[in-house]
Hints:
Blueprint: E1 3-13, E2 19-30, E3 35-39, H1 46-54, E4 61-66, E5 69-70, E6 78-81, H2 93-103, H3 108-121, H4 137-150, E7 155-159, H5 167-183, E8 187-191, H6 195-201, E9 204-208, E10 215-220, H7 229-232, H8 237-248, H9 251-256
Parallel strand pairs: 3-8, 3-9, 6-7, 7-8
Antiparallel strand pairs: 1-2, 1-4, 4-5, 9-10
Helix pairs in contact: 2-3, 2-4, 3-4, 4-5, 6-8
Magnesium ion binds next to helix 1.
Amino acid sequence: MALEFRQVSKRFPTVTRGEVTAVSGVSFVVNEGEFVSVVGPSGCGKSTILSMTAGLYSPSEGEVLVSGEPVNGPNPHVGFMLQKDLLLPWRDIVSNVEFGLESRGVEKAARRRRAMEELAHCHLEGFEHQYPYQLSGGMRQRAALARTLAIDPEIILLDEPFSALDAQTKLLIQNSFAKVIAEQRKTTLLITHDLAEAVLMSDRILVLSERPGTVISEIRVDLPHRDEPLKRRKMKEVAGYAAQIFALLKLEEKANA
Ligand code: ADP
Ligand code: MG
């Protein structure tokens, strides 16, 4: 098992609201090489789940296990990528991709080789000496993925990485992420607000309740072409899966309220 949450709760002390319970009694597993999405209302604790997986927060109760080992502190085997690409503006693309390798003490030539490899996987050859501002939003997200992959993580965590992209770019970038992740057989946890995206990209979808978030349903997406969301997009079953999640999140009732 690549990742396991066992009855995890997380409480945050706050100045104005007292203690806030972000998530409560969260249990799930992600198998090796699996692509799992997490959907749920805003503020239900999705990002908190990723932060606990990365070891940035520790659970108030329960346990988080990566490859069977309890997570105690920042985990070098977990790659974390956010909506904002967080590329350093003063570094060119290849040295941005090298960044994580630097802090791991990988020597210069090996670092460069590794970074160029991942840039090629993410179709950014020829752009290595450009600066982030010279790239489009979609290319920057691909560069951020290359940087995440460069450290060869066991698990990739994606927190709404496509939500700032325009609709067409989003489709293309989803497709290129899916391809690279499938080729490298990376275990992946994706947070998204986009129900269609979850269906197009995942093997399985965890649906969370309102805060405190807890897993109310797990949906297995029984469709081929997880490595090519653009192909899945043409399948008539996709709408059915999205409608199922829509109902679980009671979105219809909310729309009519
Ligand atoms: P989501 O990603 O699903 O929108 P988050 O995990 O960011 O939700 O947050 C869940 C809840 O926990 C929210 O109410 C948020 O305000 C609270 N929270 C998250 N991180 C912190 C923190 N570091 N300190 C205090 N409260 C926090
Ligand atoms: Mg969030």
